Amino acid sequence: MGGLKEMIIKGGIVYDPANGIYGEEMDLFIDQGRMALQAKGEEIDARGLLVMPGGVDAHSHIAGKKVNTGRIMRPDDARQGTEPRSAVCRPSTGYTVPNCYAMGYRYARMGYTTAFEAATPILEARHTHEELEEIPIIDKGALTLFGSNWQVKECVRDKDLAKLAANVAWGLCAARGYGVKIVNPGGGEAWGFGANVKGVNDPVPNFDVTPAEIITGLAQANEMLNLPHSIHLHFNNLGKPGNYTTAIETLDLLKDIKPSRMRQVVHVAHMQFSAYGGTSWRDFESKAPVIADYFNCHNHATMDMGQLLFGSATTMTADAPLEYGNARLTHNKWSNHDIELEESSGVVPMTYFRKMLVNAVQWAIGLELALLVNDPWKVLMTTDHPNGSPFVNYPEVVTLLMSKPKRDLEMATLHEQLPKRTTLAGLERELDWTDIAIMTRAAPARVLGLADKGHLGPGADGDVSIYNLRPDEVDTSLDHALVKKALANAMYTIKGGVVVSKEGRILAAPPGRTFWVDATVPQADADRLMIDLEEKFAKYYSIQIANYAVQDAYLPHANVIRAGLSVPQEVA
Amino acid sequence: MRSITITPQKAFCISVEAENISPDKFAPLTLSQIKSLVVWQGNRQKTLSELFVVEGDDAPAKAEELTIRLIGDFSQVKRIGEGMTAGVVLAEESVGMHAGNNMLGGLLSISGSADDWLAREMRGGKVLVMGNAGNYVGSGYRGEKCGMRGGEIEVRGSAGAFLGEHLCGGSIRIAGDAGDFAGAANQGGTIFIGGSTYLPGAEMSKGTITVKGEAKVLPSFQKTEIVQIDGLAFQKYAGDLVDNGKGELLVGVGSS
Questions:
Q1: How much is the ipTM here?
Q2: Which of A300, A371, A536, B190 is the most buried (most CB within 10 A)?
Q3: Which residues of B touch A73 (CB under 8 A)?
C-alpha cells in the first residue's frame, strides 16, 4: 500500500502555526501515513519552498441533494470545466457544481486535503454519503441540520435539555453526521406556510418557540454532548439589508454558554451574508466594521468569510425563503424543496457583476471582515462554495487578502460608489503566510475539532502541501499574480503520506475518509425520545423509522469520533 | 490567401468532435502542425491526419486570410468552426452537429445540410446553409438563458424545431418551413421564416418573428393591426402575454 511508505520532505520553509512554527526551514517526516519524528524512504526536495499542512475547508457544499439539484438545473454549468478521463482520473465536469470526482481532484490540486459538507437534512443524508464516498482523495464530513426540526422544537418548547441532547445524538448517528448545523432556525418551518421568521424573537408558527430559544437550546445540548464542533449557525435574516443587528443579537444570546472543549461556542457560517447595513438595496452598505469589532471584543465565536467573487455562482441553502427572494430578484431558475419534518431548501443560479453596486459591496464585506478581525484564528477563509464563488477560486481570495495593490487594482474596476459604502479602500493590512496558514489550515481544523488535521506535529495526518513559491524571496504584496498561480496548482499535495497531486497533475486518487460523531447519552433520555419519534414517524413521515438511519454500508471509509455525556475529551 | 483542404479518409461510424477545424486554430500553424491537432472520435483521442487527409499551403497566415475547404461528407463531424473569429470555412457537402457554435466572426458556408444546434450561441459573423438545418438553429444549449446574440444565419432550405430558442440578438432567415416552437423565449432577435411554422414565439419577451406562410398562433398572443411589408399583408400580434412579453409576431394574412 502506498499509504504505508515512508517519506522525507527536505528543507521546506514550514508554516505550522498550530505548533508555533512560523516559516522555519526544516525537514518533515511521514511514516505510516502520519507525521513522524523520523523516517527513511523517498525524499521530496522542497528546499526554500512554502510548506503548509494540507488545507481544510470547514464550510463548503460538496455533496447531497441540493448540490445534485444544482447539477440537474445547470447543464450550462456542467459543460464548463470538462476534462476527459486519464489513467488515474475519471472525467470531470462543471464549475460551480462540479461532479463528485472533480471536487476531489480540484481540492487536491490546490493543496487541500479535507472539506466538510455544510448542510445535510437527516432524511437526505444517505444521498450525501453516496456522493461523499465518490469524492476521491480528500477527507470529508457532513454537518447535520437541526434548526427547523419538529422534534428539536418540541424539546426546546418543553425546556427538556436532556431529551434535546438525546435527539441531537440520535440525529447525528442517523445521519452519520459530524456536527450541529442550524440554518435560519424556525424559518424552514415558517416557509411551509409561505412565511419567514423576521428575527430571533419572532415565534415559529405552530410551535411555541422562538429562533433564540432554538439556538440557545441546541448550543447547550451541543456542549452537554461535548461534541468536537460547536453549533454551526446560519443566521436569521441572512442576505437582507440591515441584518447585522440580527447577527449581533444572535451572538449575544450565546456569550455566556461555557464551551465543553477548547474551542468556540458558535461558528458563524459565511459571515459576509450577515454583515449588511442599510434599509433596502438602495442604501445598502457594509457593517463589517461593527461585526469585526464584536469579534475582536468577544471570544465565544468564530466565522468563515463566505467571500463573494464576481462571475458565476450557484446559491444553495436550507434557507428556502431566501432562495425565493433570490429567484424573484434575478428572474432565474429556482428549485424549492420541502423536507418533511426537518427543513426546506432552495437552489438558484446567480451571476455577480462588478458594475452592480450591491455585488461590489458584498465582495468588499468579505475582505473587510478578514482584515478587520485582528485574530486570524477567528476567521476561516471560504467562499461558501458555490454560493459566493466556487472553491477553485480560493487562490484569488488569498491574494486579495495578502496584497493591497491587488485590492486597489480590483477596486478600480468596480462601481464608483464602493468607497462610500465600505471601508475597504482604507484598509492597509496585508496578511502574511502565517495568517493564511491559520485561516486555511490550523483554524478550520481547530474550529471543527479535528485533532489530527491542520498541523504537522508528530501523529498528525500526513497531509502536506508544498507550493512553488519561496517565502523568503516573493513579495506577496507586489507579486500577487505569481502567488495566485502557485496556489492554484500545488507543487506537491501529499495526503496520508501519498503524493496525490504534482504541479496540477493528479498522480493518485485514493478514497478519502468520512468523519462522523457518535455521541452517547443516558439510556433513559434515549428511551423517552424514542417514544416521541415513533409517534412522529407513524403519523407524519413518509418512511418508517427502521429505514431512516444511514447504514454503515454507506460509509465504507468511516472515521468515527466518540463524544457524549460520559466520554471525556477524546478524539479517535 | 491561404487555402487548406480537408477530406475524410473514410466514412465515420463513430462521430468525430473536431472543434480544432477552425481558421483561428489553423492560422498560426504550419501544415504538419495542423495535421497533428487533436480530435476526439468517441472516447479516443486522435490527430487530425489520422482521420482526414489534410492538404494545402504550408506557411502560417492570419485567420482572415485563410479558407478551409471541407471536401466530402462531414455529417458525422461535430463542432466545425467552433468559436471562429475570422476567415472562411466552405463545406461542399453536409456537416454534423454544433457547426459554427459560439462563432464570433467570419463565414461558415455549407453547400449541403447542417445537423442540430447549428450556430448555437453565435455572437457574430455569418452562417449560410444551402440545404436544410436541424433542430435548435441559433439557440442556447441546454440550460443556457441566452442563445445567439449577434451575427446572421441564412438557411435556404427548411429548419427543424426550436429555431432560435432563447435568441438574444442577431438575425435568422429561413427560406423554407421551420419546425415547432420557432423563436421560443426570444429575447430580442429577429427571425424570418419564408414558409410555415407551428406555435412560434412561445414565451417571447422581445424581438420580432415574421412568418410569411402559415402559422398556428398561441392563444396568449393578442391580434393588433394588419401591416403591409413589401406589398404583402401580415397580421401583427403582440406577445407572449403569459410572460408579459413585448415581442412582435407577424403572420402572412390567410392563416389562422
A1: 0.86
A2: A371
A3: 143
User: What is the enclosing helix (H) or strand (E) of A314?
Assistant: strand A311-317
Give B146-194 pLDDT, tens digit per residue: 999 999 999 999 999 999 999 999 999 999 999 999 999 999 999 999 9
User: Which secondary-structure segment (H or E) carries A419?
Assistant: helix A418-421
pLDDT digits (tens, 9 = 90+) for A213-272: 999 999 999 999 999 999 999 999 999 999 999 999 999 999 999 999 999 999 999 999
All residues of chain B having their beta carbon less than 8 Å from the beta carbon of residue A84 are 40, 43, 45
Pairing mode, strands B215-216 and B206-211: unpaired
Buried-exposed string A24-45: b where 16+ CB fall within 10 A, e elsewhere = eeeebbbbebbbbeebeeeebe
**Choosing among B19, B117, B142, B206, which should be mutated to test the A contact, i.e. which has the most A CBs within 10 A?**
B142
Contact A95, A349 (CB under 8 A): no
Residues on chain B touching A332 (C-beta within 8 angstroms): 145
Interface test with A, best of B120, B145, B243 (most A CBs within 10 A): B145
pLDDT given at position B254: 67
The answer to whether residue A73 neighbours chain B at the CB level (below 8 Å) is: yes
Indicate the average pLDDT of chain A. 95
Any residues with CB less than 8 A from the CB of B193 and at least 6 apart, and which? Answer: B163, B174, B177, B178, B182, B200, B209, B210, B211, B212, B213, B215
3-state secondary structure of A443: helix
- Of the candidates A514, A562, A552, the one whose C-alpha atom is nearest the C-alpha of residue A139 is A514
Running DSSP on this structure, what letter comes out for residue A206? Answer: T
CB neighbour list of residue B35: distance below 8 Å, 6 or more residues apart: B47, B48, B49, B54
DSSP A291: H
Domain residue ranges of chain B, discontinuous segments joined by +? 1-115, 123-256
Q: What is the pLDDT of residue B256?
A: 44
Strand partners, A276: A286
**DSSP-derived secondary structure for A68-93:** HHHHHH-HHHHTTT-B---SSPPPB-
Q: Is residue B143 less than 8 Å (CB to CB) from chain A?
A: yes
Q: Which of A75, A84, A85 sits opposite B143 (nearest CB)?
A: A75
B45 and A84 within 8 Å at the Cβ level: the answer is: yes
How far CA B202 is from CA of B87, B119, B150, B213, B214, in Å, comes to 36, 21, 21, 18, 16
- Nearest chain A residue to B146 by CA distance is A76
* Residues in B touching A77 (Cβ below 8 Å): 143
For B42, nearest residue in chain A (alpha carbons): A84
Quick one: how far is CA B199 from the chain centroid?
21
